[in-house]
Each structure stands twice: as structure tokens, then as C-alpha cells.
Model the fold of this input.
Amino acid sequence: MKKAIIMLAVLLVPVMTFAVDPGGKISKRKVSSFVSQYRNKQGVDVFELGSLGTAFVKSIFSVSSVNDKDAREALTMLKGLKGLTIISYEDAEPGLKKTIDGKLQKMLKGVDLLMEAKDEGETVRFYGTYNDKTGKVSDVGIFAPTDGTFIFLVGSFNLDDISKAMAK
Done:
């Protein structure tokens, strides 16, 4: 399911243009503090990729994209990515899961809910800031409480580029 959430995030970013009024932004500092608080807890897994790591991933896609159409499309979508944090707490004990869910909901309060998807009892919420003048979404948070997963994409993503890549 975690792979499905990540793919869903990449596929549905173009749909996020339906954000209404600009609200709060997801604070990188708050996400970092949150991750530090829970990274060593039993049943919690954390994956972080900073600017150097994302540059490395982009360079791999850049080399691969010479002969691979899918790699070129992925590179287009990754263009604005500056960092990635994934926290998975699916295997945490129920009390800890409830605490993490509550803290994430509190952290995301006031941030634009760009989209919510429900499928077979599972909910995935996309948060972030949409700038209608530039057509970009920045600092996207993907929260799947049913699966115990939070994904934070740091950067600014051009919806036109993503839409073109997804249309091919």
C-alpha cells in the first residue's frame, strides 16, 4: 500500500489545482522536529533524502533519460524536488499510532487540503500551498492515517510540466 500511496501522490499532483484560498504552509522545521521525536520509536521507520540525495537521484534519471521516455517524464516531475521525508508508523503499537496521528493532524491544521481520496475505507489527504500565479504547488504533505504514513515533498512543483508528462 505504501508504494501505491507514493505512486498516487505522483499521479495526482496535477489534480491539486483545486486548492481554494492560500492557507498556511507545512513547516519544514516542524516536520524535522516531529521526525526527530519519533524516529527511534518501536515500529516507526523514517526515510529522508536531502538536497544532495535528490540531486543524485535527478542525475541518475538525467543519464537514464537519454534513451528512456519514462525516465524523462520522471525527471520532469522531479525537477522541483529538493527533499523528501517519509515516516511510516504502521507497525507502531496502537497508542503510539493514535498519538502520531493526532500530532500530524495538529501540525497540518491550517494548511490547505488540496485533495482527499478515499478508497475501500482508506483515506489519503494531500496538503500544500498552491500558487495560482505561477501554477506551482510547494511543500506537499501526503497523510495516510489508515496506513500510518506521512510523506513530505520539499520543493516547488510546476503543474503544467507534471500534467504534460502524465498526458504522454
Remarks:
- Residues 2-51+83-158 form one domain.
